[in-house]
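pasting Integration host factor subunit alpha for the record, 97 residues
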Amino acid sequence: MSTVTRASLAEHIYTEVGLSRSESVALLEAVLETMATALESGESVKISGFGTFMVRRKGQRSGRNPKTGVEIPILPRSVISFRPSHILRAAVNGTSE
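structre below
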């Protein structure tokens, strides 16, 4: 099992689409930048047949230091979550839709 990296994605674009290597890298960076900008502004990013990336707000809550047991406040924050499409979920599980 290997990790998919920016370099491997750009190489795949290069071999499948036929763009030059530098154009493939530029295309990939443009797509990732567009996704990041949308998420930064609180928008969801939906890729049909793949899934949806969305920003969720988590409110303040109290937590506990596991070492000392002292209660500390956990500040509110935004987190990115991913919900796979039913097509991707079925492919990962090896089932048909």
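The chain has a mean pLDDT of 93.
The chain has two domains: 1-41, 51-97.
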